Amino acid sequence: MSDQQNLLAEQRRALILDEVRRRGGVRVNELTRRLNVSDMTVRRDLDALARQGVVEKVHGGAVPVAEATTHEPGFEAKSALELSAKEDIARAAARMAARGAAIALAGGTTAFALAQHLVDIPDLTVVTNSVRVAEVFHTSQRTMSASGPQARPGAATVVLTGGVRTPSDTLVGPVADAAIRSLHFDVLFIGVHGISVEAGLSTPNLAEAETNRHFVRSARRVVVLADHTKWGTVGLSSFAALDEVDVLVTDAGLPPRARAEIAERLPELVVAGARGNGADV
């Protein structure tokens, strides 16, 4: 399947997911008429969305998954979702990190993808509460020489906050909160469990929500990393309103209606991997 066909499939599935969430369910025959595709294509799309765990197939159509707002998938489970979208988002967000900047990377799989694009930016100071993100930087910091391993010139200075480990390998709680409160960042890159107009940025983990609040308060610029499946999702606890966000970096699967809603409320929307839009990269 070509890249163009893949993109079309992703766009179609994003539209279907948006319709499922907005209306509480869809029927196959309605989707075939609206999207001008065959029954078989729609059923394949619903199968793909069901495998991602965002819809539940029922006779003749699909409904939203009735997921508890407190459910928090583990890091490995989340890592397998929306891989191309996360990579697009990571590449776009990496351009916002300047040499010598003090940045914060909150935990999550998209931040993990971003970390791999930041290791070659010289002289960064990186504060993170993600064990996985810290490992990316520590692994890249040393080079081998005749006298053994040595620090790589320009390697990032990494501060791991400490704290209690969550299922997503993020450190939270009073220790993490105290470390973050005492610092100031040029830019914060933060992933989310969910993002919506009403709830803002949210997570199913109460302690993680509190730690994220401290990240947001300590940053001059807040950059949210969220693939299209996060739009309209609401976790148990909100930790920031949309008006506290400076930039949202998302992917081309975000439906036009959602883009319009976001563009009305945020200073900057970056749609990674898309073409033909002034906000896109």
What does this protein look like?
The protein has 281 residues and is an alpha/beta fold. It has 10 helices and 17 strands. The strands form 5 sheets. Strands 8-5-4-11-14-16-17 form a 7-stranded parallel β-sheet, sandwiched between helices. β16, α10 and β17 form a beta-alpha-beta unit. α2 crosses α3, α5 crosses α6 and α6 runs parallel beside α7. The longest helix has 21 residues. It is elongated, with a radius of gyration of 20 Å.
Descriptive terms for the model:
17 strands, 10 helices, 281 residues, disordered C terminus, three-stranded antiparallel beta sheet, alpha/beta
Unreliable spans: 75-80, 276-281
Largest sheet: 7 strands, parallel
Number of E-type strands: 17
Question: If you average the pLDDT, what whole number results?
Answer: 84
Q: What is the N-to-C order of secondary-structure elements (H for helix, E for strand)?
A: HEHHEEHHEHEHEEEEEHEEEHEEEHE
Distance between the termini: 23 Å
Structural class: alpha/beta
The share of residues in extended strands comes to: 15-25%
How are the secondary structure elements laid out?
Layout: H1 3-23, E1 26-27, H2 28-35, H3 39-51, E2 55-58, E3 61-64, H4 75-79, H5 83-94, E4 102-105, H6 109-118, E5 125-128, H7 131-140, E6 142-145, E7 148-151, E8 157-160, E9 164-165, E10 171-172, H8 174-181, E11 187-191, E12 194-196, E13 200-203, H9 206-217, E14 222-225, E15 237-240, E16 247-251, H10 256-265, E17 268-272
Parallel strand pairs: 4-5, 4-11, 5-8, 11-14, 14-16, 16-17
Antiparallel strand pairs: 1-3, 2-3, 6-7, 9-10, 12-13, 13-15
Helix pairs in contact: 1-3, 2-3, 5-6, 6-7, 8-9
